[in-house]
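Same chain as my last thread, 338 residues:
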Amino acid sequence: MFLGCKALVGQNKTFYTGGHIGLSYARVDTPSKHGYFTSTHSLRENDEGKSIFLKVDGKGFNADELAKVKEVDFTIGDVSQVTGQDLSYSKDGSIMAAIKDGVLTVTSSGTIYTRPNSLVNMFSNGVSEDEDAGELFAALETVNFGGVVASANSTSASGMFANCINMVSLDISELSFTNVKDVSYMFYNFGKSNTDGATLTLYNNSKVWVPYCTNNYSHMFAGANITSLDLTKLLIYPDGKDSKTAEKSVDMSSMFESYLGNVIKFPTEEASFCPPLESIKVTYDSMFANISEEKSCKLRSIDISSFAPDKTDTANKMFAGSNCLQKIYANEDYSSCD
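reply #2:
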């Protein structure tokens, strides 16, 4: 089974030997039972593991080249043939990135596992901890994850595509946000300079997006220009979860402030929300504020019948300054909040 696999090393540092090439070593390597396999779970959790993605922070790249990148492609290939920047956490050359003709290609020797904060400001143009990173992806139009990135270990996606104003299309349906609890500013000003609006695919028909109860949606889509934003599967309870494990407060302040897109589709039933909105404190402050004619908005109506505010929630200036809105649909028993 393992004949000739001379470079193979198990999780517990069991090295290949010619005396063990059969099925008996086809198992995860542990202190008590030797083998040649490494646990996938261990790789995702272990920061020292191979193919752990750090993130593009601009260091080592030509700033002018990076500012002109229109496409980012993730792929699996021979990293030894790539001359560029090492983006692996352990700096072992297992994830290499290079720019050519406006395309940033991230090549990995295998599946790329993100760290808890790898997604934070990942492709951000202007919302970054690095003050010199403001023009990193000023021209970015699309990102192709190519089935290469495993993001289940990430706990935040804050600012992931913030200020990607020239975005044309993005599909993140293959990524997992199971443990993400902060998506604030994730699509801030996304596609803002695209006259026709950007297309955004959050999930496919068989998968719920953000299956864990996220508690920070502040400014998530503020200023974005997205064509027909479909959130009908957002915040839905995953199988096996119950309200006891859910967050007790959710921040949706300015979630769509100054939004430029034409349609927002929310869940059709209040029970779809995670957890049911009447059981937690929700901040709706300025949620739909400043959707105005002066900013060339296209949104004329919204359906908030799945919302269930109560006296514990706040909705200060929820629709203030939104002179684009002509109709707001709500349930007849819609209750007011502070």
